[in-house]
Amino acid sequence: MVAESDARTSLLGRRRLMELGTAVAGGGTIAAMNVATAAMAADELPISPPEDLMREHGVLKRALLVYREVIARIERGDDVPRHELGGAASVIRSLIHDHHEHVEERYLFSVLLRANRMTSTVEVLRSQHEAGRMLTSVLLTVDNTRGAFDRRARQELVETMAAFIRMYEPHEAREDTEVFPAFRAIMPPQTFADLSERLREEEYRRFGPMGFSRYVRRIADIEKSLGINELAQFTPTVPVARQAAGGPA
Fold first, then answer.
1. 13 and 122 inside one domain
2. What pLDDT, on a 0 to 100 scale, did the predictor assign at position 208?
3. Which residues lie below 8 Å from residue 164, measured CB to CB, with a gap of 6+?
4. Could you tell me which of 81, 83, 80, 92 has the C-alpha nearest to residue 132?
5. Other CB atoms within 10 Å distance of the CB of residue 115
6. Using CB atoms within 10 A as the burial measure, which of 111, 154, 203, 208 is most buried?
7. Is residue 37 part of a domain?
């Protein structure tokens, strides 16, 4: 069974880490160890529920960057990049709406509500999940739309993406800085550890062993297709940075 397999895998990871500690304590070095074994042990370190959710927020942020680029292209009169827009919306539907938000609502929000913590915030977040799914359902149709988009259709796409960005940027920021810490503060350590294993098993059942990495690759491919994959291109030039800081150009 998956649970038994994961348990054995976790045990192996802990044993490898113990061996690593023994080697270092005995005067050995990490460089002297088998690199593949060390890397495998690192991969098996448990991921806490907030950490897992926050890395999924990272994928969402990259999808929002795709939306911003699509908006810019539409507003300057370019063709709608249907495939890239539909691909980003598909990532958001599968990873965020169908998995990430399900986890939040079932395992985090329910705990906070039972503890009478952040109840009004949680209710807003849940309503935003519903609104987000409706907006995504509109964007998912783009990749299969035939013919050119008229001016009204292009404007509706821009408004839909802009509404999604405007809602989800503060949404995920509030979760990262307030909701996740509040959840962690009221969870007993063992229950917190057990939940980490449960979420790991649920993600494995839904996506397989490389599920999260697959979504990272998918969004990276979309970024590359749009020409926004180079991180350095977002660094402002020195004169611009000086002007922003109030210094001489």
1. no
2. 85
3. 64, 67, 132, 135, 136, 139
4. 92
5. 14
6. 203
7. yes
